[in-house]
TrEMBL record:
GO terms for cellular component: plasma membrane. It is a multi-pass membrane protein. Pfam families: CN_hydrolase, LNT_N. Its EC number is 2.3.1.269. This is Apolipoprotein N-acyltransferase. It is found in: Cell membrane. Pathway: Protein modification; lipoprotein biosynthesis (N-acyl transfer). InterPro entries: Apolipo_AcylTrfase (IPR004563), C-N_Hydrolase (IPR003010), C-N_Hydrolase_sf (IPR036526), LNT_N (IPR045378). GO terms for biological process: lipoprotein biosynthetic process.
Amino acid sequence: MPILLKYRTIIVCLLAGMLYALGFPLFNGSSLFIAPIIGFALFNWALDQETSLKKQFVLSLAYSLGFYLLGFYWIPHTLQEFGGLFFPLNHLLGLVFSFVIIPQVYCYVVLKSKIKHPLFLAVGYVVLERFVPQQFPAHLGHSFLSLAPTVKLVFAPWAGAAFYSFFTALLSLALVEHFKTKQKPKLYYAFALVVIVFHLPFLHPSSAKELSTLKIRMVQPNIGNFLKIDSERGSVNSIKSVYDSYYFLSTDKLPEKTDLVIWPETAFPTLFLSEGMKNNKNFPPPSVIDSIIEKTGAELFIGGYDSSLKPGEQNYKSDYNSAFLFSSDRYMKEVYHKMRLIPFGEGLPFGPFNQYLSGIITNISYFAEGDTYTGFKTRDNHSFVSVICYEVLFPDFVADMLNHQKDEAQFLINLTNDSWYGDTAEPHQHLFLSKWRALEFNLPIIRSTNTGISTVIYPDGSESPRLSVGEKTYLDHDFTFAKREKTLFQTFGLLSFLMVAVVLGLVELALKRKTFFQEIMKTDKA
């Protein structure tokens, strides 16, 4: 028992991190939105028990470790699949990664040592969430997604997930303040009550909108990593196996009409040369694509590899992770090159040293970064954009993508390949976090994956029928969408949330000044 008392703050932070993780889908895809509020409150309570900055850093490490152990337990599996690292090295490296999964907490410890005011701390934490680099951003407010579509998250298109992070942080800090001082922070509780009232369903009547419909087929081939890599290395048998899977799933039992057939990220195993192919009707696509388009009469949107290599050039960073749109007339209409690459998977974060390291570390792709926010149009002139894999997790990037379009995009296609993660929580977490972009930008998202979960996400957080992890099949869906306009969050980004915080701060200041003058008046009367 004395040991438990001695290390109680570390134990509390470890449990607090696990509560944070419960806000995201775990083993069965379910989550608990209230858990991060309690977890962040316990974390702040523990920090208040220590005066040493060094000890507070240790507590933040325990908090991050708890979050990893329950929420990101799948990282060692990925290190084994993707990097070829086996037990115990993959688990040891996973523990190292656990300390950088939520790096904003270390900056927050420093901030909390300088600032004590709950409102400023809550604002500071959300700003840190936004600007401290993270590969898999899982923020405090994201857990509220579990309430949708039953509860309409009305502040998402106004101020994004940042508003819900602010709400979570402020309520957690208010609870700690209440426990510590035995005085109710009435303003913060009133703010929480107002936020809850705004989410009551009768305040948001539905309105009829003119809808457009695309008849789509999402192909989920469930191609294993060995076959995928072997085909990309040029094995004739493996390439044929991949082609056969896509051909069958794209053409089997076709409905009367299909507008768009969609394949996932890096579906096509061999290189395209889009510079020569794009809008060139005399440059035919590969035979399997040609045959699928001929049989379906549909346009084809696929993930694959594009090369910018010219004769005599070296092949370092000459290839792109790309998305291609082929017309029903069987030519390449447009291509998007992935712009945000995954560190240690699609490149290394060591700048000019990468080219030399590429000769030593050979199991990394070393893709080139795209530099164009490509827009696409269907044959019926519906504008859309595409992002690849984890790009969808970054709201600022998606906002930039949308704001660079000449014509407002009506929907987004997210191509991804989660095969490296197996049947773990990662595909559920990836989908869960992707849904925020639909809410923030009032933007339907078609999510096409290799191994699942493939689905259509609608702007209220609802879904079409889905293809689950491990299924090898296709989904025909009448995809309906309304003409959309920019949301406030798309236009102003983090400024929208900051405006809410400023208003709340001004109200608090006004109330304190009123109390101050009331005290003066009481003194004068005495």
